[in-house]
Amino acid sequence: MNLHDLIASRNSVRAFDPSRPVPSDVMTRILDSGRLAPSAKNLQPWKFLVISSDEMRSRVYDCYQRDWLRQAPHILVVKGDRNSAWVRASDGWNSLETDLAIVMDHLILAAHAEGLGTCWISAFDAALLGRILELSPDEEIFAITPLGFTADGYVPVPKTRKPLEEVVEYL
After folding, report:
1. Which of 69, 114, 128, 133 is the 20 to 30 A CA-CA neighbour of 3?
2. Residue 56 lies in a domain
3. How far apart are CA 54 and CA 68, in angstroms?
4. Residue 40's CB: how many other CB atoms inside 10 A?
């Protein structure tokens, strides 16, 4: 599958097969795709947390209480250190959110390329998740995603996107 087809066919999955954990070689390829993501000044201000144990997954459910999240055999967390990210000198803008968005996109597309489902989640209780994961004051969680094989019979909600003419402006 070429990159355009991969991007076009990716969707948010909300039903997972809890009996099928991701094989370690597949997990390694997904995580390595995240590692290779670009970041401002190549500072790579991120860490990836792979939550697979029943105990830790059950604790994470408290910060995002959707039944379908409980089905996923893994939860990927992207965290970053604001003090390790590049800062633009002219106005103090910090690149952390941009860097972490790029890396999460790489992880999600790599998972899709491996035949796995994900769902970008930002609507979690960040303070609670930070306590659960014992983050330092400088660490932030940008996004999480369940990761696993899609449940048999699951039909994702079709994506709707604005037409290209509506989002492109040629100058």
Report:
1. 69
2. yes
3. 15
4. 18
**DSSP 8-class letter at 53:** S
Beta-carbon contacts of 55 under 8 Å, excluding residues fewer than 6 positions away, are none
Bridge partners (DSSP) listed for residue 50 = 76
For residue 132, the surrounding DSSP H or E stretch is helix 126-132
| Contact call for residues 104 and 78 (beta carbons, < 8 A) | yes
Tell me the residue range of the domain where 56 lies: 3-153
Question: Is residue 158 helix, strand or coil?
Answer: coil
C-alpha distances (whole Å) from 169 to each of 4, 138, 164 are: 21, 38, 10
| Whole-structure pTM value | 0.95
pLDDT in tens, 46-63: 999 999 999 999 999 999
Number of domains in the chain: 1
d(CA 14, CA 170): 37
